[in-house]
Amino acid sequence: MKFALGITALLATGSSAFAPAASGARSTSLFSTTEKTYTFAKSEEIFAEAKELMPGGVSSPVRAFKSVGGNPIVFDRVKGAYAWDVDENKYIDYVGTWGPAILGHADDDVLAAVKATMEKGTSFGAPCPLENELAKAVIDAVPSVEMVRFTNSGTEACMGMIRLVRAYTNREKVIKFEGCYHGHADSFLVQAGSGVATLGLPDSPGVPSSATKATFCAEYNNLESVKAILDDNKDEIAAIILEPVVGNSGFIKPDKEFLEGLRKLCDENGALLVFDEVMTGFRVAYGGAQEYFGVTPDVTTMGKVIGGGLPVGAYGGRRDIMEMVAPAGPMYQAGTLSGNPLAMTAGIETMKKLNKPGVHEELERKSQKLVDGILAAGKKHGHAMTGGTAGGMFGWYFTEGPVKNFQDASKADGEKFGKWHRMMLERGVYLAPSMYEAGFMSMAHTDEDIEKTIEIADEVLSQL
Fold it and tell me: Is 304 designated active site?
């Protein structure tokens, strides 16, 4: 992509951002600073080996830093709001393992509960009471959910969901939105944002046209684009599926009227409304985006937070819909490790802490403080920037804005974002390595962390 090439060229003409600095000396980083910046010799060595062992050296594409230049840092450990790499550099972390670490990394109570459960075994492949306990917590929290099925990832949850909505409605066609990501199943890899956009791939090789011919893409925050598809495919649309807050095209907040309009259109056309709350669930509010905006879908997919840092996903909805799922009904879906006791335990302990007064208000306060500070620093130094928050989720773009959809997001200055990301990283702030990813606040972040981040951002923005 243009911005990836731009930062690569810059790095090639200057001192390497990864070059080790002499002891006690200032960094040889490309970007000057009043303070010594980080060096990454061990990360470089480990990543060089990783590239010989795994495609691109990573287990998930966005981790490779392709769009921001340089190579990724290699983590050693995490705790609270912080991460340490193998070179012993410490970071204030706003990625939070891509969302699950809402309490902060390695929460003591979650770890203690998981350790106690581990003594009983790591997986049963059979029913256990912990599934009931987490299921009751999810049903109690999420307005649309009367029954729930656990899976091992958000992608699995979305795979089960799309089969379910087609089975229930006896229709094949679905509507999704440009820039919304619902996992890497074939049916969804159409204008999917996130890692696909990060790598500049419009879709993915290996996805047959037959897998996506029943998937229609509308423009986010544009009801007319949805109406046009419904009109052209009358009584044929099974579901309208979306991220109720987009986190895979950066951060895009919906107009409430847009969500309300989708609810009405689904009711009028016999289609199901699906909120993919893998990212927003239990993060923007305890009951997810559907509680935050007051719009209730028919089916909800979940993940990340409800696993407390362990692999988990889930989909749920009205009882009459969910009773289509095997073995209660004919729609088949299964998983060897689904509902395993470790993930259930971590989820239960996480949910207990989130279901306390003021938690999500505090997450949003801190997110807003961070975004306001970053945007103010950008304005001070003459940068076009826009951003926003929803609960413990946030983001910003290098563009005037507003950003209402993926097309708006793609107009942001990606080359500047790449430089910004590297300079923040070298000063101890770990941000998502793509402008097409949202950021995440945790309960462990302090006002001091946020103020330090804004101070570093001010310095970086003065040099961009």
Answer: yes
Asked about 181 being catalytic, the answer comes back as: yes
Report pLDDT for 10: 37
pLDDT tens-place string over residues 139-155: 999 999 999 999 999 99
Single out the catalytic residue among 173, 304, 369, 419: 304
Residues in the chain, overall count: 464
**Does the pLDDT value for residue 288 go beyond 90?**
yes
Pairwise CA distance, residues 241 & 228, whole Å? 16
Select which of 85, 93, 276, 449 is catalytic: 276
CB neighbours of residue 199 within 10 Å: 17
> Out of 181, 220, 292, 436, which one is annotated catalytic?
181
Give residue 196's pLDDT band: very low, low, confident or very high (50, 70, 90): very low
* Geometric angle at alpha carbon 47, from 181 and 85, rounded to 5°: 85
Give the pLDDT confidence of 198-211 residue by residue, as tens digits: 333 446 778 887 88
Check the CA dihedral 252-350-77-93 and report its sign: positive
pLDDT for 186? 79
Closest listed residue to residue 250, CA positions, set 436, 393, 461? 436
| Distances 58 to 38, 72, 152, 317, 417 between C-alpha atoms, Å | 22, 9, 20, 35, 22
Q: Are 79 and 91 in contact (CB under 8 A)?
A: no
Predicted confidence (pLDDT) at residue 34 exceeds the cutoff of 50: no
Among 358, 338, 356, 344, which Cα is nearest to 306's?
A: 344
Amino acid in the structure at residue 386: T
